[in-house]
Amino acid sequence: MTTNTERTSLFIDGGWHTPSTGDVIPVVSPLNEQRIGSVPASAPADVDVAVAAARAARHRSDWAALTPEERAAVLHRFADALDKRAEDRATTVTSENGMPIALARFAEGAAPVQLLRYYADLALSTPIEERRTSRPVPGTTVVRREPVGVVAAIAPWNFPAVLSMFKIAPALAAGCTVVLKPSPETTLDSYLLAEAAIEAGLPAGVLGIVTGGADIGQYLVAHPGVDKVAFTGSTPAGRHIGRVCGELLRPVTLELGGKSAALVLDDADLEATVTGLATASLLNTGQTCYMSTRILLPRSRYAEFRDAVTAMAAGLPVGDPMDEATAIGPLVSARQRDRVLSLIEQGRAEGGTVTTGGGRPAGVGSGFFVEPTVFTDVENSSTVARQEVFGPVLTLLPYGDLDEAIALANDSEYGLGGTVWTTDDERGLGVARRVETGSFGVNTFNLDWGSPFGGVKASGIGRELGPEGLAAYQNLKSIFLTA
Ligand code: NAD
Question: 155, 163 in Cβ contact below 8 A?
Answer without folding.
Answer: yes
